[in-house]
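SEQUENCE-TO-STRUCTURE ENTRY
===========================

Backbone structure tokens: a row of integers, each naming the local backbone shape at its residue.

Task: work out the structure tokens from the sequence, keeping to the layout shown below.
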Amino acid sequence: MASIAVCPGSFDPITLGHLDIIKRGAKVFGQVYVVVLNNSSKNPLFNVQERIDLIQKVTKDIPNVKVDSFQGLLVDYAKSVNATAILRGLRAVSDFEYEMQITSMNRVLDEEIETLFVMTNNQYSFLSSSIVKEVAKYNGDISELVPAPVKEALIKKFNS
């Protein structure tokens, strides 16, 4: 049986750091579901469908990646696709405490689903979607931070 992982996030928008984690996860797992968190408490720049479309564009050449969205408990989504792992990227020590809390809660909800952390590539350790949006908002060069389709979408959003 092929191993299945879920790589969750808000991906508002997807960055080269996210893409690095997804590509590396796709080398380890038979199937990786990149799932967009539909969190009604946040005010995203891109709606869920726009984020899904962007992720599909930038992962189209990775055959074992599927893109989806979810609302609710991540472990419930993972069970629904028969995933045995949750794939998370860590940028810095500051990410660890938050991720540890989430992982511990997920273990309480379903101890059969493991969470695996992948350290981000050093060149992306500072990168976040928030930083990308801030730079793009003021017409800064984001070409080294996001895939080309994402750069185009950000320019379009901020120029409309």
